[in-house]
Amino acid sequence: MRTVAATLCVALAALASPAARAADDCAIALGRGWPPATENHGAAVERLLDGGLTPALRLTRLPAFATESGVLLIPGEGEGDWTLRVAEADDRVSRWSGGRLELRVDQTPDAEEVPMPAPLARRLVDAWQRTFTALVPADRPAAFHEGPSSFAVGDLRVSGLEPECGPGQLVMAQVELLVEASEDGDERRARRWAELAASIDELEQTLAGLAGGDAGEANGND
Predict the structure, then answer these.
(1) Which of 29, 84, 86, 96 could form a disulfide with 161 if both were Cys (CB 3.0 to 4.6 A apart)?
(2) Considering the entire predicted model, what is its pTM?
(3) Residue 17: pLDDT above 70?
(4) Residue 20 has what DSSP assignment?
(5) What's the pLDDT at 221?
């Protein structure tokens, strides 16, 4: 992809290790749903990037000036492989012209599609759903941010700034692995899947630790 992988690499290089930040210092700038004045733009971008498919998991990026992009997982038939799709608009979808906002969806996005083992894909969907359910309270609506990102897993959508610490940072590392897998050959992609499985293990352990800490607080434990 032209800019998706480069953008992710720059962003991830700036992140500290999840273990390097205390839990009480990890602020997540995500809320439920679409941010204000964003849904029409976001929905148009997602229709463009879907390629007529129905993803079970996706990350959609709506940068302020650059072209919009997304990472999607589309279920296969039965127990067959899922499809990993990494796509970017050929031209920016949202553009002001003559004092009016245009949503340019009459274009063909730049996209890469590769097969992904179904058990691993299902694990990732489950891990992301549990992560965002735990991190983003149901009563916290998405706030406006310039150039937001939106994560959708099943019926759950959270939007805002991409997390830079805690479990959310592990999610972003997994996004990077997905992008790299979309660009790799079969042999290197198999290594990405192994790395992704290990990252999901770490995320599940982190979530279990958070749940244990919540239970301890509820029971009055230190």
Answers:
(1) 29
(2) 0.84
(3) no
(4) G
(5) 46
